[in-house]
Specification:
547 residues; alpha+beta; five-stranded antiparallel sheet; three-stranded parallel sheet; elongated
Length: 547
């Protein structure tokens, strides 16, 4: 820091000589010159901006350009003078413009495309930022194309913005190395949502069409209003269709609009027709639609949903004292007669004979009480609780296209988790023959700890007692084979793939070079050289594509 005769403080950046601009230094383009000056500004501790330019009058070609410190110039005090009330509410801010002309000017060569530095003012009349805060300055913050693509991938995986920043901080070794702030990411997400606001339905249909191109077994159909607004749509991916052909005897459904239309399209999409069992809540419209479209399908109500209603329908003291007894009667009665007698006894004990809601549930008992439904195979399911637990995952997405992408990723992850769980549980049970009569053999299925040294003797159940759905051959012969997805036509996936591959290789080199000062210096020199070469390649490509 220096002082002049007017007692104004002068701040001189401390940057190594080879990283400073010099008069006569040449660059291949304006962008290359600005990039060099901005890198210098980052090391020096200030932000930059493009100030002004001059054109050759005859050809209207830009021949002179000036870049300045972002605090160059003066603020129009009268124009920006806030009211007293506004001044009280505003937070304290540093000076936006300080008037000092820290700058660099470049001029285009008379022949060729190079630009040369014609003037360079190095000093500043304001304090410079520290290395720990310089990354917060405007010209050093940008959400690169790779980070934009990564942000979209994170959003589709339901990773919040603050969690994204934490992950990036770990990957890049601190917030100062990310290249942008959490606010920049949020602004990008906001702009992205605004772009999709009026074309979300159109984007969804385009997404469906692209999925159909990747795999011809992807099914989708939609309807629009007269003004070409999306009314309703139905879709099923190739995996769901193939899985339904093997395991589609039980379906858990939820509330939707136009139930009849949806169920008819479901039958059209799925290869083996209507399911044997469908589980929903007690929605009257859904009940009527299922009876109309699936007359041969057993429609049962969600047991979990009904049990959760008891706390609302009973007073707190009655619920506390009698709910567990009633629940035991519902879940453990083995025959309808046993349920009826146990239910009546429980109602008398709790003095609930006059409860209208319980009477209604009793009248509907054949649709939800296990004792009336155990004769129909339901794959161990009695409720739509799995669907209920998934709702919070999608409620964050108000845009229909974003919701759909999240659903696809969620269902793929969910299938894998279920597969892992089934594999693990399959090693925790054994069967033991209990008795054998003329035409009946009784087996007892027992659970044991996989770590146990003494395991019960395992007998093999006869094949006729094992449904095909529980075997490794369940999917054999199922239609709609999964088509291969090719990412070569998806620019965003290609960008993420290249970025990940280069990040991995770079991390290996950085781990080695950072061990010594010599290695670090060599790495920095090579990276600087490589960076400008790659910029030239990208600029040439953009010019050839007319960007």
């Amino acid at each position: 820091m220096e002082e002049n005769s007017d007692d104004d403080q002068i701040y001189m950046p401390e940057v190594v000589d080879e990283r400073k601009p010099k008069i006569g230094m040449e660059f291949g383009s304006v962008d290359e010159a600005f990039l060099f000056y901005n890198h210098y500004a980052r090391e020096a501790g200030f932000s930059t901006r493009i100030n002004t330019s001059k054109k050759y009058k005859i050809t209207n070609e830009v021949v002179w350009k000036q870049f300045v410190c972002s605090k160059e110039g003066h603020t129009d005090e009268k124009k920006n003078q806030p009211s007293d009330e506004k001044r009280r509410k505003e937070r304290a801010r540093g000076q936006v413009r300080t008037g000092f002309r820290s700058k660099i000017s470049i001029v285009k060569a008379q022949s060729g495309t190079n630009w040369a530095v014609s003037a360079f003012q190095e000093s500043h009349n304001h304090p410079l930022s520290t290395p720990s805060k310089v990354h917060l300055l405007q010209s050093h913050r940008t959400v690169s194309a790779a980070k934009k693509a990564l942000t979209q991938q994170f959003s589709e995986a339901n990773v919040s913005t603050c969690q994204q920043i934490r992950l990036l901080e770990i990957e890049y070794g601190g917030s100062e190395h990310i290249g942008c702030t959490e606010t920049d990411i949020r602004n990008f997400e906001r702009d992205l949502k605004n772009e999709q606001k009026d074309i979300d339905a159109e984007t969804l249909i385009e997404f469906f069409a692209s999925e159909k191109e990747k795999n011809s077994d992807f099914f989708f159909i939609y309807e629009t209003y007269s003004e070409k607004r999306l009314n309703r749509c139905f879709w099923a991916d190739a995996v769901s269709r193939r899985t339904y052909s093997a395991f589609g005897d039980v379906v858990v459904d939820e509330k939707t609009e136009s139930f009849v239309w949806m169920l008819n399209k479901f039958v059209e999409a799925m290869p083996t027709g209507a399911p044997n069992v469908i589980i929903t809540d007690q929605d009257p419209a859904m009940t009527k639609a299922i009876a109309q479209v699936f007359p041969q399908t057993m429609h049962r109500y969600c047991l979990w949903y009904i049990l959760n209603k008891f706390s609302e329908k009973l007073d707190p003291m009655t619920f506390r004292d009698h709910y567990q007894i009633i629940k035991h009667v519902i879940e453990n009665s083995t025959t309808p007669n046993e349920f009826v007698s146990s239910w009546e006894e429980a109602m008398k004990c709790a003095k609930l004979e006059g409860n209208d809601w319980l009477q209604l549930m009793y009248d509907l008992r054949k649709k939800w009480v296990p004792a009336y439904l155990n004769h129909v195979f339901a794959a161990g399911m009695s409720s739509s609780q799995i669907s209920e637990s998934s709702h919070s995952f999608f409620k964050r997405s108000k845009e229909i296209c974003q919701w759909n992408i999240r659903w696809l990723k969620c269902i793929q992850k969910k299938k894998w988790v279920e597969f892992e769980s089934e594999i693990s549980e399959s090693h925790g049970y054994c069967v033991q023959q209990v008795s054998e009569e003329d035409e009946k053999v009784i087996y007892n299925v027992m659970h044991y700890q996989s770590s146990s040294s003494s395991k019960p003797k395992v007998f093999q159940l006869p094949d006729k007692y094992i449904l095909n759905r529980w075997t490794q051959h369940a999917m054999v012969g199922a239609p709609y084979t999964m088509g291969e997805e090719n990412i070569s036509n998806d620019p965003e996936k290609l960008l993420i793939s290249r970025n990940s591959r280069l990040s991995f290789k770079s991390s290996l080199i950085i781990d080695e070079t950072s061990l010594t000062d010599e290695g670090t210096k060599l790495m920095e020199e090579q990276l600087d050289s490589l960076y400008y070469k790659i910029r030239e390649i990208n600029n040439s490509r953009n010019l050839s594509m007319g960007r």
